[in-house]
Amino acid sequence: MLRRVNRVLLALVGLVLLAVGGAVLLSGLDLPRHWGFTMPGWWPFDGPGDVVLSDADRRRWRDEGWWWPTVIAALAVLLLLALWWALAQLRRRRLGEVLVTGGDGNAASLRGQALEAVMAAESESLDGVERARVRIRGRRTAPEARLRLLLTAYAQPVATLHRVCGDVLEHARHSAGVDRLPAEIRLRAERHGAERVS
Q1: Which CATH number fits domain 97-189: 3.30.70.1350, 3.40.50.2300, 3.90.1150.10, 3.40.50.970?
Q2: pLDDT tops 80 at residue 191
Q3: If you average pLDDT over every residue of the chain, what do you get?
Q4: What angle do the packed helices 169-176 and 112-124 form, to 10 degrees?
Q5: What's the rounded mean pLDDT across residues 62-79?
Q6: Is the Cα dihedral 184, 164, 133, 172 positive or negative?
């Protein structure tokens, strides 16, 4: 739900910035006069001669030595925060730890990277798996796994998939003490050259 709200807000902010930027570009290039239309009455820029800050606005703080460095620093911080936020949207979150609960009411935490490493090693030990990458996401009490397997040239994908589901995921589910461990498994074949048959 939060991811969907985040994407909707990002799309709305992008649309607003695109609309404002396009309107400023139209006014800056004097396109309303050339194309024969007028901008709305509330729009502050009428043509290429208009500026964001008038001479009076710019000179108002000229004698204050702290003003422009403060403005530039604030804008730089906003830019860095916006870039950090944009990069955070692209990064997939990994689960730091999984809460392991015992039948007696006691609980312990299992590092997510440790579980990923064990699942990757067990997957790579299967016949036909050249390399495995595992990511654990979700919540501490309801982890989800994402596996990417690189299969060898002569692997049997269906058999490998059954072994991963039956062995690797079941062992991880029992180790983490969860009732279910949803998983997304992506299989990719290793590239190899064609062989000649004589």
Answers
A1: 3.30.70.1350
A2: no
A3: 82
A4: 150
A5: 87
A6: positive
- Is pTM beyond 0.90? Reply is no
Which residues are within 8 A (CB) of 175 and not within 5 positions of it... i.e. 6 or more apart?
A: 100, 110, 115, 118
Query: How many other C-beta atoms can be found within 10 angstroms of the C-beta atom of residue 11?
Result: 10
Of 118, 84, 83, 112, the C-alpha closest to 100 is 112
Which residue type does 78 have?
L
Identify the burial level of 39 via C-beta atoms within 10 angstroms of its C-beta, where 0-12 means exposed, 13-18 middle and 19 or more buried.
middle
Render pLDDT for 137-148 as a digit per residue (tens, 0 to 9).
888 788 888 999
Residue 49 has pLDDT above 80, yes or no: no
